[in-house]
Design goal:
The chain is mostly helical and 198 residues long. The chain is built from six helices and no strands.
Length: 198
């Protein structure tokens, strides 16, 4: 029984609001968190099945990993909204006082964080994808559809998070950081494609 329908409805209502935050970056992280949570569920179900007793110790470790990734991605979902809000705030300040060095620096820092957060989301979602392979080989086959849903959600999390990294590239005032971020994004996209076919 879905006991958290009100919480899910509230989250969707926030996404549906006319406010730009929370937005796609938060949704991408939430998708990754749901993916990790599904893997935890599969591990938990299998840990109750004596037919898989030989894999219980491995499953317990996998569950710890998926639980940790779910918690991390939930934090990143919140962080993404805060990062966007900071970009908006510092953009306004910079426009008001374009010659103010502190305002420009604050804006540059905000854009950098707005790239770092979704990059962390993408990295975490790739870890969920890797983890799903281990859960698939160890967990109960009756939950194979749940694992597939987890994989697709994690893949969406990677793609969505990287879209949020790349959209900020033109606004990044640190050329070296921007170049590194672009390369890292390409690397994560390659790994996502290798781990999860389109």
């Amino acid at each position: 029984m879905l006991t958290s329908a009100k919480g899910l409805r509230a989250f969707c209502d926030e996404l549906a609001s006319a406010e730009p935050s929370p937005g796609g970056g938060t949704a991408a992280a939430a998708a990754g968190a749901m993916a990790a949570s599904l893997l935890s569920m599969v591990c938990g179900i299998t840990l109750k099945n004596k037919k898989h007793e030989g894999n219980w110790s491995k499953l317990a470790v996998l569950k710890e990993e998926s639980d940790a990734l779910s918690s991390l991605l939930l934090r990143l979902a919140a962080d993404d909204a805060l990062a966007y809000d900071k970009v908006v705030e510092t953009t306004r300040a910079k426009r008001t006082a374009p010659a103010d060095g502190k305002a420009v620096t604050a804006y540059a820092d905000a854009v950098r964080v707005a790239m770092e957060v979704p990059m962390s989301t993408a990295e975490a979602c790739v870890k969920v994808l890797r983890l799903s392979e281990n859960v698939a080989s160890t967990g109960t086959k009756s939950a194979s559809s749940d694992i597939e849903v987890a994989r697709r959600l994690a893949g969406a999390g990677v793609d969505g998070a990287l879209a949020n990294v790349l959209i900020n590239l033109p606004y990044c005032m640190d050329a070296s950081f921007a170049s590194t971020a672009k390369g890292k994004a390409e690397e994560l996209r390659r790994e996502r494609r290798q781990t999860l076919a389109p």
